[in-house]
Amino acid sequence: MTQNMPGKGSSGERVHWSEQSTLRVAGVPIQATFAEAFDMKMTRIIVTAADREWCDHAAAAMTGFGTSVIACGIETAVEQELSPEETPDGRPGVAILAFAVSGKELEKQIPRRAGQCILTCPTTALYAGLPGDRKVYPNRVPLGKALRYFGDGYQISKQIPHTRPDGTQETIRYWRVPVMDGEFVCQHDVGRTEAIGGGNFILLGRSMQSVTLACRAAIDAIKKLPGVITPFPGGVTRSGSKVGSKYAALFASTNEAFCPNLRTLTETQLSTDTKAVLEVVLDGVDFSSISNAIHGGITAACESVGTDGLVGITAGNYGGKLGRHHFHLEQIMAERS
Amino acid sequence: MMKTITLTRNQTCEEPIDVSSLRLDQLLPLSETEIAKVRLPSCRNVELGELFQVESRSSESAVPRLNLRGDCRGVHHLGHQHREGAIHVAGDIGNYCGDCMTGGTITVDGNAGDHLGGPTGTRSIGMNGGLLTVQGSVGDFAGHRMRRGEIRIAGNAGDSLAAWQVAGTVIVGGTVGRHLAYAMRRGTVVLGTPVQLTANRFTAAVEMKTPFQHLFFHRSDLANSLPDSNLADSTNTWLVSRGDRAVNGIGEIWQRG
Predict the structure, then answer these.
(1) Nearest residue to B73 (alpha-carbon basis) of B98, B50, B95
(2) Topology annotation, domain B2-256
(3) Domain residues of chain A, as ranges?
(4) Which CATH architecture best describes the domain A13-33+196-335?
(5) Which GO terms describe its biological process (chain B) (predicted)?
(6) Among partner residues A156, A161, A182, which is closest to B131 by beta-carbon distance?
(7) Does the first or last residue of chain B, that is N or C, have fewer Cβ atoms within 10 Å of its Cβ?
């Protein structure tokens, strides 16, 4: 990733950008750089169950091994918990967002995961989280369309007419697949749409403990926001990567410029008082949702530990050459303050 | 803005009318005068204006509408192959209402005759989509050979309800006649009033366990269609029987436990 390189002070020693930064949140310097993000395909599904515990088990399985498209196929996580009043069948639920680099990959991964993680979990049901038929979302990701065959001929298709608020009729097709606890109810398919993946910000910590606290505060703030997920474990990754590797088989490898242990060996981006670095990676339904999450996350992180815990906050980019969505930190923090 | 066409039956005209050639989507481009001149070839080739007062206007409705007013008990085959828009009958309607319809909605405020949503002529498929609602009672063979869509009957249904049903859903708030779901293969019949099913044709009832009940019953428009049935009461226990086993059918009959 390309970052602003450390400048030189009057005495000739290298000066880290954090000492010269004019933008600060709770005293923590924010680098005037940008996060670079990419076009992705996205869908949203709703999982419900008889109680919150089964629902959470299903969601954990469905979103497991969904951290990065580098090897997982999709990036996926729970967007928000839904109360019974917010779900189609009046039971506790979660909304899950899933992102992939291509529609084809999304169409492959979602039914595969749903079949092994939702269908298998007691009492669950699966619905489309993007309301709208083919007229609204022409591209569709199969749900019950693929999973119905588990019913071995005993499955039942039901098309239920609903009256929209404008008075027009919409027909939604459900599949009812007999299973050992009753029926697995599953909507036929769900739309997919364009979205953005790879928004990020990087927290430079004075200790592992302080950067952990800052990240947890950031993730807690982002969790409340709609339309965005942080797919890595706990919403955070320690293995921020650069493009390419000395090994031909790998197309991503460790970002040595942010590794504290290599500070004296490589061209580093870290000041001497930076002891640990963590990155928050964001996928969102649109530019605005990611911008809001970056703002909310950075604000919460800085306010939680201040300058005692953080040396500064920066973002990862590739010089603007690879992704067309650029999230300029100073602009986002200024506009939303 | 959508067009709303209103046909009011001339009180002096009592002869039965076959309106199977009347299609809402084909009437929409026509002016009021042109609609009045539309001929009904299956009914001694009379013009529509001789049988109905015709009114056509633009309205705020989201879908095109055809309204029927007056005594329409002798109007048969209304909504034949109806596929788009809303048809509303202010009173009773004759036989074969909604026969072979594939989409849209038909709402009858009063009673309907025989063969509601059934097939006509040599066709082997009856209603094949859309929503057909009758606030009153219906005659025999409602939902005959139904393949898709939903029929809601707030009152009672006659004999042979959902006979030879292939798929789709029929909901009846009141009582049903003999030969219920005869030779039904798939599909669903929901009964507000319990019946004794023939043991050799339908399985013993088992309690339904499915979140689909909530999806099905908690629709605001369903409560409006069947206001007195209490079908959507969340305390209801539903029992389901499968059949008609005489034809290896696996259709469903839901009854309140």
Answers:
(1) B95
(2) Pectate Lyase C-like (2.160.20)
(3) 13-33+196-335, 41-191
(4) 2-Layer Sandwich (3.30)
(5) methanogenesis
(6) A161
(7) N
A183 touches chain B (CB under 8 A): yes
The pLDDT tens digits for A17-73 are: 999 899 999 999 999 999 999 999 999 999 999 999 999 999 999 999 999 998 999
Handedness of CA A101, A103, A108, A112 (dihedral sign): positive
DSSP A6: P
Residues A159 and B148: beta-carbon distance below 8 Å = yes
B143-184: per-residue pLDDT in tens? 999 999 999 999 999 999 999 999 999 999 999 999 999 999
Contact criterion met (CB below 8 Å) for A137 and A285 = no
- B215/A174 Cβ within 8 A: yes
Q: Does residue A5 carry a pLDDT above 60?
A: no
DSSP track, B31-70: -HHHHHT-EETTTTTEEHHHHEEEEEEEES-SS-EEEEES
> Which residues of B are less than 8 Å from A158 in CB distance?
169, 188, 212, 216
Enter the DSSP assignment of A4.
P
Residues of B in contact with A168 (CB under 8 A): 62-63
Q: Tell me the backbone φ, ψ of residue A5, rounded to 5 degrees.
A: -80, 155
Q: Which fold has domain A41-191?
A: Alpha-Beta Plaits (3.30.70)
A121 touches chain B (CB under 8 A): no
